[in-house]
Every structure is written in structure tokens, then in C-alpha cells.
Write a structure and sequence with these properties.
The complex is a heterodimer. Chain A is an all-alpha fold. Chain A has helices at about 15-30, 30-60, 60-65, 70-95, 100-105, 110-140, 150-175, 180-195, 205-210, 215-230, 235-265, and one strand spanning about 1-5. The longest helix of chain A is centred in the C-terminal third of the chain and has 32 residues, at about 235-265. Chain A is globular, with a radius of gyration of 20 Å. Chain A starts with a strand and ends in an 8-residue tail after the last helix. By secondary structure, chain B is an alpha/beta fold. In chain B, about 35% of the residues lie in helices and about 25% in strands. Chain B has nine helices and eleven strands. Chain B has helices at about 55-60, 105-115, 120-130, 145-160, 175-195, 205-210, 230-235, 240-250, 250-259; strands at about 15-25, 25-35, 40-45, 70-75, 75-80, 90, 115-120, 165-170, 195-200, 215-220, 220-225. A six-stranded mixed beta sheet of chain B has the order 6-8-9-3-10-11, sandwiched between helices. Chain B starts with 14 loop residues before the first strand and ends with a helix. The mean pLDDT of chain B is about 90. Classes of the chains: A mainly alpha, B alpha/beta. At the A-B interface, strand 1, helix 1, helix 5 and helix 11 of A face helix 1, strand 6, helix 2, strand 7 and helix 3 of B. Strand 1 of chain A pairs antiparallel with strand 7 (about 115-120) of chain B, so a sheet runs across the interface.
């Protein structure tokens, strides 16, 4: 039996793979966990989809803008579920009191975060792919019809989701389970400001500055431009990427700072209820 | 001395702790302790609740950052160089858990992969035979009894055949039969591997049986540090528990002076 001395390797795929395996085992062990990934996005789809139908019957504007509400709810779910998938996977370690086991292993923070990002994508795929198919079946709305723009929208949304997830994970490490509610609620602070269901111009002038500081705002504005005016605003995507790069870097720095603070405070010894 | 009359170089200690201090807000959990663990030795860390045992072990592992002082583990400065040695270290404590929904095999597979153990399947099978886990391998950890979970935790702690094994009350809340079984397995591991072991415990019989040296802590300080046999002689006691009580109740120095 040998133990490979890959402890000094900066990013070891086998350690990332070990953590992904851990979360996949968990998902496989519980059909309720799998169902929960699909359930809430499906409920949201039906509520907003039928609302869109109703409004379109009474408004020529929305009759022309078919799918804008459905696209908005699907993309909001990508953002929210992307963050939640990251955060819930992290919380599994705290709920199971396994965090200290991981922290004394050769697993590096960048590997842990990488595994959480991969799981976020897997959980998102499990939840969202069936829901996008339901959107086609029930409402005739094909999200994939957005083409290459969807990739740009998705990439920007998931980067924001990961950045929020990384910060939440850091706060949990430092402050323990008392901060758990952040994982479920923090993203909703962004919801009114990122203009998911309405254009930025609806906001008061002073609030628009805050809105334009948030990458998802560019995505939702870009989505409306594509669906309603059939224009792909690549400039908005580039600006979103630049902001995401900045915030992601800040989130990573915050995570490392909070992890170091947790080590100084002894918080890693007390994780879990 | 070797054949040419030159002294043989002493092997480096596996762990060196020098003037270690840990303060949480206004509370000093560890106050300037120093010790070295010889490679291949088994040392007991005794002390009451709040003595600083768990904090000391946590600092050795890099889980907690010291306020001041230095720690060297297997040649690496902790916590700065932790990733150079963590693959050679492991830890077991009843206060840490493993994912309950994963089976024993799945848990060992995950941890084995984290420690880059090869060939992993063979190692898991071997550990399962040694620790009597074969019939539980495909059972979720959450469905095991306390004694069975302890064996699984021990399997995880031994998965990488660590050069340094730290144990925090490994037999806490176990029945005497299971506790004795665990001690026997630890003895066997140590004999086969020659690993360095640091064992924090309240169980005096366990410490007397397993440890060749005992460090007694009280309120963050090292009160005494000697072999079990010499402690018994110096304190004029028949059991390590009586020595511990003398130290805990401040009778230690008075008793030694009277001796």
C-alpha cells in the first residue's frame, strides 16, 4: 500500500474527484434530495408560465414578448440554484460534522471549492434540464432556442452564483451554523436589484447605479433584448464577465480570509450542531 | 555509538512543540507549552476538561492557529507547511463524524482518495478484515451502533497508514469490551507501522496500557511529563488515576516534596 505524496501538489484532480464522489453518493442515496432539485423550479415555471399566458391574453405588449417571464424565471433559477447547489453541498459537511475531517486531510481550499462548483453544475443540470423540457411541452418556450447567447447568460449567472456561494461558505466557516440562513436567503437580496422581471429603467435613478454594479442585471437586460428586440447585446455580456471576474476574485479572497479567521478563532472545531 | 566511535545521529522528533500559546479572546487555553514526541513513540496527553488537550492536538493538526509558539510536524512547520505532511497524518475523535448517509465503503473510498491511497480497494478490504467491518461495509454509517461507528472512524484514521496518528478520547462512551478491542487494534497498528501516536484521554487504564510517556496538562499548562512508571514512583501512588487526581487537585508538588 502506498500513499502518493501528492500533498504538495497545488490542485490534485483525485482530491477534487473524491469530494465530487462524496456528494454524488449522497444524492444517489436519497430520492427526496433528487426530487427536491426539480420540484421547486417546476413549481416556479408553472406559476410564472400561466401568469404570462394570462397577461398575454390581455396585453398586446406581452403577447409580442412571448416567453420573457418564463425565460426570466428559468434564468433566475439558474442563478439561485447555482448558488444553492454550491451552498447546500458545503452545508452537508457541517450538518454531518465532517468538516474537521476534511480540514485535517490533504484537501486544499481550492480543491474543495472546485468540487463544490462542479456539484453546483451537476445539481443544476438535474433540476433545470427537466424543467426546461417542461417549458417546451407546456408553454411552447424553448430556452435552448436562445442559442449561443444562452451559454453567455448561463456562464455569467453561474459565476455570480458561485461567488455568492463562496462568500456564504466562508461566513459559515467563521460563524458556524448560526449563519445557515444566509445560504437560503442571501441571493434574494439581489432579486429586486438585478431586475429579473422588469427592465432597469423601472428602478429609481439612484437604484439603477446599484443595479448596474451587479452582473446578473446585464444578463436579464440581455435576455429581454434578445427575446423582445431580437438583439444579442454582446457588450452587456462582456461587462458582466468583467464584473464577475472582479467579484469572484473578491469572493475567493474573502473565503480564504474567513477560513484563516476560523482557524484563529477555533471555529473549525465547533462546526455542526 | 556506531562502530567508528562516532555518535549516531538521533532521529528527528516526529512532533516538536515550542512555547505554544493559544488565547481565545481573554481566555488562555494553552499557556506556553513545550514538548517533543520521539518518532515511533506513544504518548498520552492527560488532563481534565478544559485542560487544553483538544486545543493542543488541533494546533498540531493545523485546525487551530496558535497565538504564538512553533509547531513542527514530521519536518514541516505547522500550519504554514501543512500540505507537505497532512497526507502522512491522521486523527480520530468521537466528536467528529462521518457522513451518515454514505456507506462504510463509500466513506473509506472518499477518504482513501483524499489521501491518495493505492491500491485503495485492497486497503479498504484489508482494514475491514482487521477491524471487523466486513459485514458492515455496505451499510450506511448512520445505521451503525456507537461501537461500530468507532471502528469505522478508526478505519478512516488508519486508511493512509499515518506516520503520525492523533487520537482524542478514542474509546469515549464505548463499553469495556469494545474499548479493549480498540486498544488492542491500536497496539497492533503501532507495532506493525512504528507510527508516532499522541493519545488524549481521560481513561487512565488506557493510557497506562498504551503509552510509554504521559504529559499531564492542567489549565493550559504542562504540570508533569514522565513515563507512567516513574510518575507512580514519584507520586507514591499505585494508579495513574491517583497521580492525575493529585495533579488536578494541586497535591502533586506537595506530595513529591514529602517523598
Amino acid at each position: 500500500m502506498t500513499v502518493s505524496s501528492t500533498g504538495a501538489v497545488a490542485l490534485a484532480p483525485h482530491r477534487v474527484g473524491a469530494m465530487v464522489l462524496r456528494y454524488l453518493y449522497l444524492l444517489r442515496s436519497s430520492w427526496t434530495r433528487l426530487l427536491e432539485l426539480i420540484y421547486w423550479p417546476a413549481v416556479q415555471l408553472f406559476v410564472w408560465g400561466f401568469l404570462q399566458f394570462y397577461i398575454a391574453q390581455n396585453s398586446g405588449f406581452f403577447a409580442r414578448a412571448t416567453g420573457v417571464f418564463i425565460a426570466a424565471v428559468l434564468m433566475w433559477d439558474m442563478l439561485f440554484r447555482g448558488q444553492l447547489g454550491f451552498s447546500v453541498s458545503f452545508l452537508e459537511e457541517m450538518w454531518s460534522r465532517n468538516l474537521a475531517n476534511l480540514m485535517i486531510s490533504p484537501l486544499r481550499p481550492v480543491e474543495f471549492v472546485s468540487a463544490l462548483m462542479i456539484m453546483s453544475l451537476i445539481r443544476l443540470a438535474i433540476g433545470m434540464v427537466p424543467v426546461t423540457l417542461l417549458a417546451i411541452i407546456f408553454f411552447g418556450f424553448n430556452l435552448y432556442g436562445l442559442g449561443i447567447a444562452l451559454a453567455a447568460f448561463f456562464a455569467n449567472l453561474i459565476l455570480t452564483g458561485w461567488a455568492v456561494g463562496i462568500v456564504v461558505a466562508g461566513v459559515l466557516l467563521r460563524n458556524g451554523m448560526g449563519a445557515e440562513s444566509l445560504a437560503w436567503t442571501l441571493m434574494f437580496v439581489l432579486m429586486p436589484l438585478t431586475c429579473v422581471y422588469y427592465p432597469v429603467s423601472v428602478l429609481p435613478h439612484w437604484l439603477q447605479f446599484i443595479a448596474w454594479a451587479l452582473p446578473p442585471t446585464y444578463v436579464f437586460e440581455g435576455m429581454r433584448a434578445l427575446i423582445m428586440e431580437h438583439i444579442f447585446r454582446s457588450d452587456l455580456m462582456v461587462e458582466a464577465f468583467a464584473l464577475n471576474g472582479l467579484y469572484f476574485g473578491l469572493a475567493a479572497a474573502a473565503f480564504l480570509g474567513l477560513l484563516n479567521s476560523a482557524r484563529r478563532a477555533g471555529s473549525l472545531l465547533q462546526s455542526g450542531e | 555509538m556506531c562502530a567508528f566511535g562516532k555518535p549516531m545521529p538521533m532521529p528527528e522528533p516526529a512532533v516538536t512543540v515550542d512555547q505554544l500559546v493559544k488565547t481565545y479572546n481573554a481566555t488562555r487555553a494553552v499557556e506556553g507549552i513545550s514538548f517533543a514526541l520521539a518518532a515511533g513513540s506513544v504518548t498520552g496527553l492527560l488532563g481534565g476538561n478544559g485542560a487544553g488537550k483538544t486545543t493542543t492536538i488541533a494546533m498540531i493538526l493545523g485546525l487551530v492557529t496558535p497565538t504564538s509558539g512553533t509547531i513542527n510536524v514530521l519536518g514541516a512547520e505547522m500550519p504554514r507547511q501543512r500540505y507537505q505532511v497532512l497526507h502522512r497524518v491522521n486523527f480520530e475523535s468521537p466528536y467528529m463524524d462521518m457522513p451518515h448517509r454514505l456507506t462504510v465503503r463509500q466513506n473509506l473510498k472518499v477518504f482513501g482518495q483524499l489521501y491518495a491511497v493505492e491500491p485503495l480497494a485492497d486497503r479498504i478490504d484489508s482494514l475491514a478484515r482487521e477491524l471487523d467491518l466486513v459485514e458492515f461495509l455496505d451499510r450506511p454509517v448512520g445505521k451503525l451502533s456507537a461501537g461500530q461507528k468507532t471502528r469505522v472512524a478508526l478505519a478512516k484514521a488508519l486508511i493512509n497508514s499515518p506516520d503520525l496518528l492523533l487520537l482524542d478520547e478514542p474509546t469515549a462512551s464505548l463499553d469495556p469490551d469494545t474499548a479493549d478491542w480498540v486498544r488492542e487494534r491500536l497496539e497492533r497498528f503501532r507495532e506493525q507501522r512504528g507510527a508516532t501516536v499522541l493519545l488524549a484521554s481521560h481513561n487512565m487504564a488506557e493510557v497506562e496500557r498504551l503509552c510509554e510517556r504521559v504529559i499531564i496538562m492542567k489549565r493550559g499548562r504542562i504540570e508533569d511529563d514522565d513515563t507512567p512508571q516513574r510518575l507512580l514512583i514519584r507520586y507514591g501512588r499505585e494508579t495513574l488515576e491517583d497521580v492525575f487526581l493529585d495533579v488536578a487537585r494541586g497535591r502533586g508538588q506537595a506530595r513529591e516534596a514529602a517523598q
